[in-house]
Amino acid sequence: MSSQSGIEANQNLLRDFQSFVASQKKVLILKIQNEALEVDSTLDGGDASIDVWLQSLRSTLSEHAPAYVVIRNNNGKTFTFISYVPSEAKVHDKMVYASTNGAIARDLGADHFSSSVFVDSKEDLTSQWWESVQGEKKGSDSNIHAEEDPEKQDDEIWLQAGSSSRRKSLVQDQRKELGFRMDPSLEKVVYGCAGHSGDVDVVYTIVIKGEELQLDAKHTLENLKTDLVGALPTENPSYNIVSSAKGEFFIYCCPSGSKVRDRMKYAASRLAFTKDLKNHGYNFKQTVEVGDPAELDVSSLLETTSEQKKDTAKASQFLGGKMRFSKPRGPRRR
To answer: Which regions are flagged for Basic residues bias (predicted)?
Structure first.
């Protein structure tokens, strides 16, 4: 069972947002604090010029901390939603905000917003920028109204998690770079085992500590079918690489008691990590995502592998789209 990433708007935030909509204030700034979305501050526009209230906004925003910014449009009726994720922010914070981006805009009410904009430097918030935003047609640069599938959502997370200097390469291949550093000892162990499945069943458990992927544990199993579930962590999310005689498997576990921030970190990094492993020689029979380890159906996992072998055997009977028949024997000599 997979867990959807993202922090939802609570009733307090929805009430504060409605108060902002009903007021004449120009800017609403939201931040994620203690795993909840909260109003950080509001700014008055009044009769001030564009340059004045934008300067106030730039002064309020940090060069190191992301935020969501809602700005009242010039028509006074609709709003522009800004996902502000500075290049200098921690990778962890970038992923948390990126994975919540679409959900918060929808929770607040998509009809309120004429456009959704991503900004990675507060210095970009100039009068020329604001005039260009106001000149856009409704919904022309917005993904608020679009339903995102998991693949597309993860692409967006990785695109927004990258700095401006990396964004071009990320557009070409959003998942080819890991957002977290890999501990050298983990790199040596994991990459060294790629494509070398043998008679011994081994599980490598990998976790994110700080901003680094680290090897948390290595388990050698006597019986893959009966011992695999017990080798998986039950308290916190983890990536698990299974190298066995049955093949290689990737298992992402996200236990029900995991913190929301941890869920988002692991969910946002999973596709990039598995792609990186495949680029280094891994050929996973299956990539599985479960909540609690007890949800993993090992029998089904191994049976699927057996079925794949049967299908391969059947396919080998065909050559060039035609079935290959055994050559008939000639008549016996008398």
So the answer is: 324-334
Judge contact between 305 and 224, C-beta under 8 A. no
The β-bridge relationship of strands 113-119 and 79-84 is parallel
Q: How many CB atoms lie within 10 A of CB 54?
A: 22
Q: Angle at CA 118, nearest 5°, toward 112 and 119? A: 125
φ/ψ bin of 121: left (φ > 0), alpha (ψ from -120 to 50), beta (otherwise): beta
pTM, rounded to two decimals: 0.52
Contacts of 203 (CB under 8 A, 6+ apart): 217, 218, 219, 221, 228, 231, 232, 240, 241, 242, 243
As given in the structure block, the two tokens for residue 299 are: 């029998």
User: What are the pLDDT digits (tens) for 153-165?
Assistant: 444 444 444 433 3
- Quickly list DSSP for 27-54: EEEEEEETTEEEEEEEE--TT--HHHHH
C-beta of residue 100 within 8 angstroms of C-beta of residue 82: no
3-state class (DSSP) for residue 191: helix
